[in-house]
Amino acid sequence: MTTSAPATPAATPAVSFVGATGPALRTGDEAFDAQLERSMSAAMRGSADLGEVAATVARIAPGDLGSWRREWRATGDAVRADGDASLAAGHTVSARRCFLRAAEYYRQAFFFNRTDITRQDLLDDHAAHVSAFRAAVPLMTHHVERMEVERDGVVAAGYLLRPAGPDVPRPTVLGPAGYDGTAESSYLDQAFGALEYGMNCLVFEGPGQGGVLYERGLPLRPDFEATLTPVVDWLVAQPGVDPAAIVLLGRSFGGYLAPRGAAREPRIAALVCDPAQYDFAATIRGRLGDQAWQRLQDDDPTLEADLAGLLADPQRANDFRCRMATHGVATLTDYFRALATFTLDGLAGGITCPTLVIEAEGDFASQGQTEPLAAALGGPVTRRRFTAAEGAGGHCEGLGQFRLERVVFDWFADALAQRTGPAS
């Protein structure tokens, strides 16, 4: 769920999760530990096992990107093999659990390995991630249908998940992937909660995300409405979908993508931004300073060398290069120029549906973005701030995912009831 903000994430509290005989679920590396939180949250949704995670962590050297990839891949392969064995023996529940856990471990394997989207090991790990998730799909207890749409050079792919039972019209959550996300990993971040709350969920990826980036080579683009509109067109033609109750949940970089799409898509009944991502140009200018910003605007050829210090730390350099690959550029200056085009300035007023703007204490991605977005919206706004004291600090509320879902899905229900009446 990591966004493209160039700052280093705020430090999380020094908590160690230690079993009676097992290792701590911490590596001593801040970036690694931030990703471990995602697998811990996945465990709450049956898509990771804390013992498997801890055993994998014990084999990883802090800061060693090669060992990170290697050990997560090994764990993914072992758990996938377990799933295949269970399925062959007719044990479908065990197989489904294994496949979902393997999908999470494969995602971890390629997370820090995205600096070159043509790398064969990246493509192999992503393919394994997708394959494991799709192996779980026919074993799930709810309806799942794959989606792929293409229009005017834009490709979107994902999965529509609907609660088991008759196809009565239900509200549907649209869950776009984040900056480093995939449609498959969005099952955990978006669909799992929506299904428990009795809602459909369409999780999907577009340009710059998941297979659309790695397999089709399409980089991230700022005009998310070009992706969202054909996705909504496909959605309203599906069974069990109430076209008057389509809501949009943007998490991490989706906190920019979702409102950008909603500004041009009138069929969105309610919007959640977690967190708000209003204007990356202002963010970059604030971090580079006015002088460097002006040189960036002037295409100063000497600026690249002056920014080289940003790549001095290997982990930070890796982060930047992953982001460059996502945007289809090869230099820092081109990356900053590309990112500066991601703005809601002059567009947010077109969002007239009810909007919930979320901010979490210590979330580097929301700093300075909440108030500008809230002030610019053209419809009613609700604000919610989560804190570390309640266990929901950090990027996208960190480990406090059930606290987040209570707020988000209760708010969706209330917003839809006010719009269409309780019967909907």
Automatic annotation (TrEMBL):
The record's annotation in SUPFAM superfamilies points to: alpha/beta-Hydrolases
Q: Which InterPro entries match?
A: AB_hydrolase_fold, FrsA_esterase
Annotated signal peptide:
none
Specify the domain of life of the species encoding this protein: Bacteria
Q: What PANTHER family is this protein classified in?
A: CONIDIAL PIGMENT BIOSYNTHESIS PROTEIN AYG1 (AFU_ORTHOLOGUE AFUA_2G17550), DIENELACTONE HYDROLASE DOMAIN-CONTAINING PROTEIN-RELATED
What is the originating organism of this protein?
Actinomycetospora flava
> Member of which family?
Belongs to the AB hydrolase superfamily.
Q: State the Gene3D superfamilies in the record.
A: acylaminoacyl peptidase (1.20.1440.110), alpha/beta hydrolase (3.40.50.1820)
Q: Name one GO molecular function term.
A: hydrolase activity
Arranged from A to Z, the UniProt key words for this protein are: Hydrolase
| Name of protein | Alpha/beta fold hydrolase
